[in-house]
Structure prediction request, 248 residues.
Amino acid sequence: MLLKNKVAVVTGGSRGIGYATVEAFLKEGAKVVLCASRQETADHAVSELKETYADAAVEGIFPNLSGYGAVKDAFDSVAEKYGKIDILVNNAGVSDSTPFQEYTEETFEKVMDLNIKGVYNCSRAASEHMIAAGSGVILNTSSMVSLYGQPAGIAYPTSKFAVNGFTLSLARELGPKGIRVNAVAPGITYTDMMRSVPREVIDPMIAQIPLRRMGQPEDIANAFVFLASDMASYISGEVLHVDGLARS
Prediction:
């Protein structure tokens, strides 16, 4: 098992890519704490996982990721219970497609608060325990739109471009302390959001991908497993694109 006895925290872990990542980590022997936006959501995800993995060490928490104090208290509790935090996956985020002229300050700040400030808060809180241990892995969810933007919803690609810069800079700063920092940039992935998109919209998108299919959450989760494991022990400061070569 690639992650045997590792303790991982996965934000946005109750559905989609985050849920698939929690599941993949459990299969590889990790103990996982998933973060969700609400207690009911966290409890439901944990209940589902335990139906499949009866002996899995998995639990759910629901701190406000945009508030550092709440995140620190939650992560300190995780470290106290399990003795450490080996892996953090900053996956929680919100997308947006609001036309620029319709943007409000509140709309922009909502995206930035979770997609950037949340990544900072979680990384800051988890890194304290990793620095004390002399090792750790921080993984961030970027996006293919961080490379070339999107037609509307300026805050989302802006936030993911910031995630890339955060990843590279933090890797340089925390590397000497034994901590690796990387990101995964998914392409078009078949999550709940994509299920509501009409086929006439999806098919032309797939036609632009050489592999002729959308990514599955498991494709992204497998990349997180690799980067979290010792197989990637000499990889840091990278943004790994998992997109079927869908870049323009």
